[in-house]
Amino acid sequence: MAALAVGLWSVAGPPRDVKAQESDLLAQAEALADEGVAGQARQLLARWEDEHGASAPLDERARAWYLAARLAEEGETAELLYLRVIVEGSSTPYADDALLRLGQYKFAQGEHGKAIEYLGRLRRDYPTSEHGPTALLWIARSARLAGDDARACAAAEQGLNELVPATDPDLEIALLEQRRGCHDVTGAYTVQVAAFRDDAAAQNLARELLTLGFDAWVLNATADDPIYRVRVGRRLIEGEAKALVERLTRMGYSPFIVQGTRTTGG
Fold this sequence. Notes:
Alpha-Beta Plaits, 266 residues, Serine Threonine Protein Phosphatase 5, Tetratricopeptide repeat, single chain, 12 helices, alpha+beta
């Protein structure tokens, strides 16, 4: 009977597979990092690297690089590790987190233009990221210190528009602080992708764009203007609108930037 049990164990493999062990080690290291026990976290991470680093799937490697960046004792080392997540792990769940951290690091270094670049890339490349409003806060702060008050105001306004009310009071307060003293934002942009006389055609294209990750919507026709316009984004900063145009153009669409006051739609 014992021999049979051993034979079955050999066929089925150990009760916990290698992937689970990999994940457990990283989870333990992350927990220690969260508790501020950096030395032990680094030891576990080094053990993970020795045992699993070469064979781990990309998601797990990016997770490890991201954690290593968090634990790095030198800013330059952290920056290189975050860049590795962004470049080699661009398709992983950690890329937008890395871009946010890089933007914040560059802000702390006083490199406000570089901070805006990284945070803008987060907004452009990961439009559904949960960090969108936070990125806009740091764009606003960076732009303010760079002397670009118009951009700072637009970013703060957009962040407040995107933030779900009451979900993050501290972030809302910070965005309101950045918006203080701003006049009404008149330089709000959107991107038009196409126009139709038929509502169904417009809605079909909007759904197509939504499935591709774009914030697509339809500006409905009126009695004076019987055209249905498919647009992407609302109250965008000019730089974001330009980036959207470039991205949509590469995908074969013919978009252009629109600046205007009527932004309601389906």
